[in-house]
Amino acid sequence: MSLKLGVSWKRIIQWVVITAVVVFVAACFTRLMVWEDNYYREMEGSERDVVANAVAEKKEEEPLIEEPPTEEEVYEYWVAPDLPRYLSIDKLGIYDARILQVGINPTGELATPNNIFDVGWYESSGKPGSGGTLLIDGHNGGPNVYGVFKRLPLLENGDIIIIERGDGVIFHYSVVENISVPLEEADKYMATALRSPEPGTESLTLITCTGEWSDLRYTYLSRQFTRALLIWHS
Predict the structure, then answer these.
(1) CB of 139 within 8 A of CB of 123?
(2) Fewest beta carbons less than 10 Å away: which of 134, 161, 171, 231?
């Protein structure tokens, strides 16, 4: 009998301890939720809140397409006669990459095509043959596959970049600068990227992400800027 009573008391003590732990954890969790809610209400609209929201929006973007377009899709891709249609860089093994028209995304950054094998032409920049500066961006890569501009840092002065316009006219640009800029300075450098390295001469600027990846900021920590001058067209 004494043995049975001993076991019963042990069970009672175990249940008391377990109940106390559960109540304690629940109280802590509730307190944490209340604190977090109050914290984000206080931080709403602050710089930190804006950065956090921007990162969250990036993570919610539509997943990247890591399959190159088919030959038929490339051949049938059409744009207006005065717009850029294809980009080719023989040194990097890039041939007839489709050039899609892009603008500014909700986070205030230059948008990029959803397919990592396409490139994007900023619609407010120059057009081929207009005498201005074309601004084109592309992906460094996706989660599993290298993107169209993964090897962009390998270009050197004198290397040729080809743009084919919608009417079939071909424009040849010669690289004059290829630099990596820290993310914090990239926005400021954009003003330079939108100007010709040689006033009065049409130019082209290619941009991609490069450097180390930041999980906190959900992006690469540098931007590659490749600038080239128009040398001839046919």
Answers:
(1) no
(2) 231
